[in-house]
Amino acid sequence: MSSETRIPTGIAGLDRVIEGGVRDNSTLLVVGSSGTGKSTFAMQYLNYGLEHGENGLYISMEEPPEQIMREAKMLGFNLDQYYEKELFFFHSKGKDFVKLVDEQLPALVEANKNYAVKTRVIIDPLTPLIWAIQDKQEQREIITKLFYTLKQLGPVLITTEEHASPGETIGEDVLIPIYMSDGAVHLTYRPIGGAFNRALEIVKMRATRHGEEVYPYIFVRGVGVVVRTTPLVSAEDVRKYDDVFDKAIRTAADLGASERMLERLVYVKENWSYPFSPKETLQIFFESQGLNDAITREELEKRREESSTKAAALEVSELTGSMQQDEDIVPEEEPSQEDEPLIDIDNLSELEEMIQ
């Protein structure tokens, strides 16, 4: 599990499956077609920050501030009380956005260097910029500079419209923003009736253990987006498979695994977040490291004998240096717990049987 401090998104249910929130100074891209609620995500994310003592910067490339605050109020978010105090707007369109990125935003970052208050940034939507700059290289360069500049203020949420062709999972027009962002969630809308016809999927989330399911969500006035999720690991399941890992680690050590491999197994144990047993994963990992049925019982016994012989020789050498005894007399070895086989197997497939 990550020990890094996380910043809650304020999106009900989402933080459960992204280790409690987003990383500071990171970018989160919200991708979806019309009707998926991208702007609602943005307003809810912004409102949470304002309510918790942060400042807000809303960069709009379509709607003016008055319309944004009016729509927010309809959802139950009163942004008016923060306007021009903790909340500020930039309203820009198309090619004018290049000037904003090159001049205005860097000046804003410089002016905020001496302020301790975190600023939560919204770009809603990025779509006009993508449409205005057709050259992919130029588009990539300006998006890179935009993301780099804004991340210096605080966590950034960006929305963008997608227009996927039939058969496409994600539209080609949003591939560059997805690639450049630190995290991306994909919203889909299927107008087939019923309460849960919208769903969220986490496409990527750098340096974060995240959920991999498709999560339905709804809109609740006064709350905003509510994503139906359950925590990745419940409190009672956190250490559920410790015994399985401990036996696997002892077996790996008995088979002559390197210290680095043992450290990796311990790390996997500490970060295992799946609700199912790690037995199959461990077996596959053992095989990938050469700890499989190629190591026979005969080879294992040979290793143990060699280890015991070395230990005995070392003990005799130490004793003869400090005690005058007959050279033919060799002190009896105390039984060593380390020499006792922890798990005896003919092949690795027996590991599952032994640890059930």
TrEMBL record:
<dbReference type="Pfam" id="PF06745">
    <property type="entry name" value="ATPase"/>
</dbReference>
<keyword id="KW-0547">Nucleotide-binding</keyword>
<feature type="region of interest" description="Disordered">
    <location>
        <begin position="302"/>
        <end position="356"/>
    </location>
</feature>
<dbReference type="InterPro" id="IPR027417">
    <property type="entry name" value="P-loop_NTPase"/>
</dbReference>
<dbReference type="InterPro" id="IPR014774">
    <property type="entry name" value="KaiC-like_dom"/>
</dbReference>
<feature type="domain" description="KaiC">
    <location>
        <begin position="5"/>
        <end position="243"/>
    </location>
</feature>
<keyword id="KW-0067">ATP-binding</keyword>
<dbReference type="InterPro" id="IPR010624">
    <property type="entry name" value="KaiC_dom"/>
</dbReference>
<feature type="compositionally biased region" description="Acidic residues">
    <location>
        <begin position="325"/>
        <end position="356"/>
    </location>
</feature>
<dbReference type="GO" id="GO:0005524">
    <property type="term" value="F:ATP binding"/>
</dbReference>
<protein>
    <submittedName>
        <fullName>RecA-superfamily ATPase possibly involved in signal transduction</fullName>
    </submittedName>
</protein>
